[in-house]
Amino acid sequence: MLAETPLRRQAALRERIGALELDGLLVQSPPNNRYLTGFTGSAGLLLMRAEETVLITDFRYQAQAPREAGRVARIEVDQANLWDRLKRVLGERPSGRLGFEAHVATVRDRERLEPCASGRWQPTADLVERLRTIKDAEEVAAIRQAAALGQEALAETLPAIRVGQSEYAVAALLEAALRRRHSQWHPFPTIVASGPRAALPHAGTSERGLEAGDWLLLDFGAQVDGYCADLTRTVVVGRRADERQRQVYETVRQAQRRAIDHVRPGMAAREADLLAREVIVQRGFGDAFGHSLGHGLGLEVHEAPRVSPTAEGVLPAGSVVTIEPGIYLPGWGGVRLEDDVHIAPEGPVLLSDNRVELLELV
Ligand code: ZN
Ligand code: ZN
After folding, report:
1. How many domains are there within the chain?
2. Pair (12, 127) in one structural domain
3. Spans in the chain with pLDDT lower than 70
């Protein structure tokens, strides 16, 4: 990442800080810190004031922090205690009114903050997250690359799946294929859910062995330059799909298609959710789609904007969201299809391949 990118983001954040009449902001969230400085470590306090940006971190990042963030922040490495160092840095000039990330700070952090500054601490919410919602070309490219990598890993895994294998064995094949293609990490625990377990939207993965005629739902992520892709495919294993399976699958596929084709920047998020939900309700499966249509995607696998029936606000131009309708029938199984979409100013652009024709692994 060029130094201009974090500096531009810092300038945008300073504007927001100024608009709230704050003299600075303490950023604790690692993805926010990464967004503003390029620092990828897990421990850091980032102090943004009008005059300067200071990144306080510990010994483990002594070499890494200056390399990653040295051009866009003053780096302070403390061997003993980050909070003591924060106090010293804040003591260099009168602190005034400072913001902290109320959605990140723990009660314990809040206690530690109090003696650090002479001025008052003011809770803030989602200041950096709101900036992160709008992706630049580099961020969109990273998500697209992560999706491509995930699709290649899936294409390698599917032909190796056999009746009798456990879900763990399938997850191991998929995760190894992701890592061989340089996914930095699995941004969330891979879901491999077979048979009736496919009816559990957040099933995790188990020792259950695949049986002929099972649904097999794979929900997995890939990560490139810190940016996540999030994909779900559902296939039938061991024999051809039956009528009921075809009917449910086709309903989910059409619901997803409608949402992908018709989401627009500026559309109310709940209206976007309805695009898919209406199809599922019309076919009589409304009660079987109990989760949101999607979520924002970026440095975190769940970020703004939410795409749900209760979401406030609109889908901003430049955001990236998942579109993942599903139908879950307890005892029978379920189908979910998930793709990643850039809500570009001129309309939706798929970042994943949306290859969702029904696959029967026989
Ligand atoms: Zn997913
Ligand atoms: Zn998702």
Report:
1. 2
2. yes
3. none
